[in-house]
Amino acid sequence: MRSPTPLTSDAPAPGTAGLSPSVDSEVTWLLHRAAQRLHAATGEQAEKYGLTLREYIVLSALAKSPGLTQSDLGKSLGLDKTTLMSQLDRLERRGLIVRHSHPRDRRLRLPAITEDGEALRAAVADACATAEDSALAGFPPDQVRAFRQILITIIGDSEDRGSCL
Length: 165
Fold this sequence. Notes:
Mean pLDDT: 86
Helix content: 55-70%
Structural class: mainly alpha
Oligomer: single chain
């Protein structure tokens, strides 16, 4: 077993509060910091269109996986029922989603993205893709593909109990 490595070097860069990444930094910490950076960049893009990053992610999940019940949507996003309901309520008030009763079980609700919701989601997706491309601009396409594959392998196909938001 390898010994823990420090997250910092001896001389922190100005303004980093001593948490400069290095090749010796723990992968978990590096992934966390990279996710924070990309969340901030894509969150800024979503806000330009009047959405929070969480609202954009909910719309994207509905667009990519139509027919999910509210419960299944919450599980797939790692959101508890209360948080998800408040997100869906806001999106519904704005006309970006509608909720229907399940055809075989009226107790279940099926949220669906509307045409207006899809148009807004697509615009935010384009802006977020540009922000993501900018963050990865210094890497050749084969390295970006390899990085994506590494992340997919790390994620695997198990259900994630943590929030993606």
